[in-house]
Design goal:
The protein is an alpha/beta fold. It is built from ten helices and 13 strands. Helix 1 packs across helix 8.
């Protein structure tokens, strides 16, 4: 059993009230993988340019991420630069350079096509569909996206939603895609689009989970020293999907526990720049914070 994730591997430049960092290892697939690795083997599918630092490749390999399908192409790596102010809930994008991401066509090894757990992290929905078509009868497929694709490739995204089990979106994305301001109504509409399970991320306000049989909502783990929220959503998805990929059933208890793990891992992520905190985590620290979270929730 393992999990395959498609998405971006990027070089991020981030400025927050806590400081500025240049050329951090980032991207949806990278943040997801560093989180999901605590539960399962992770095969990463992405593209980088010739300028991508070897130290980042070495780092991912050292963390056990399988890079068989990480393409290194002529051109520049996808780069994002952003700044957070105030409550740090929203990033102001300063620049985006697609580089080789604009020509990305996923290529995976034959044995990877048999992987049963698939997560389509944020990237062009047509690219996500291309990978999904390569997979041989996966058991569990999760999907993430962003407002840009909702606005520019809504038709492709809606087509893809019919083929996945889990859709992970933040609150604004859920509203934009459905036209519903109330998140319960938005989640219900998203469910009607196809996915069995809807996960709506609400940043510092936690998570809403929706399916036909039950609904639940949990707060975020309280963090005093937020340093950098970049990658928190992908880190949540990695913990959530990583935990589910090892389970034999999808009952309410299992799904709640998956949300707990996603919440805990994302809480570590925001405490440092890039992957500073999640890269140095161990199972003991994760369990300790999970136990603390349960006490906060009066479990």
């Amino acid at each position: 059993m393992s999990i395959i994730v498609l998405g971006t591997v990027a070089l991020d430049t981030v400025k927050t009230p806590k400081g500025k960092r240049k050329n951090l290892l980032g991207g949806s697939a990278a943040h997801f993988a560093i989180s999901a690795r605590f539960f399962n083997q992770v095969d990463l599918v992405a593209i980088v340019g010739r300028d991508f630092p070897k130290k980042h490749i070495d780092f991912l390999e050292k963390k056990g991420i399988i890079l068989t399908s990480l393409i290194k192409s002529d051109g520049k790596t996808f780069r994002w630069s952003g700044e957070y102010k105030g409550d740090l809930n929203t990033a102001l994008t300063l620049s985006t350079e697609l580089g080789v991401l604009s020509i990305f066509k996923p290529q995976i090894a034959h044995h990877q096509k048999k992987i049963k757990n698939v997560f389509l992290a944020n990237v062009d929905p047509d690219v996500q569909m291309n990978l999904l078509k390569c997979m041989h009868s996966p058991d569990l497929v999760g999907l993430d996206s962003m407002n840009y694709w909702i606005h520019t490739k809504k038709k492709s995204l809606l087509k893809l939603l019919k083929k996945v089990d889990i859709y992970v979106a933040n609150d604004q994305e859920a509203r934009d895609l459905t036209g519903e301001q109330n998140l319960i109504k938005a989640a219900r509409t998203l469910r009607a689009y196809g996915p069995r399970f809807i996960v709506v991320k609400k940043g510092e306000h936690g998570v809403l989970f929706y399916c036909d049989k039950f609904i639940f909502s949990y707060p975020a783990f309280p963090v005093e020293g937020v340093v950098d929220p970049t990658g928190a959503g992908d880190t949540f998805a990695g913990g959530f999907m990583g935990y589910l990929s090892k389970q034999k059933r999808m009952d309410e208890k299992t799904l709640k526990r998956a949300v707990f793990y996603g919440t805990i891992l994302s809480s570590f992520n925001v405490e440092g720049f890039g992957m500073d905190k999640t890269s140095s985590l161990n199972q003991r620290a994760i369990k300790a914070r999970l136990d603390k979270f349960k006490k906060i929730l009066a479990f």
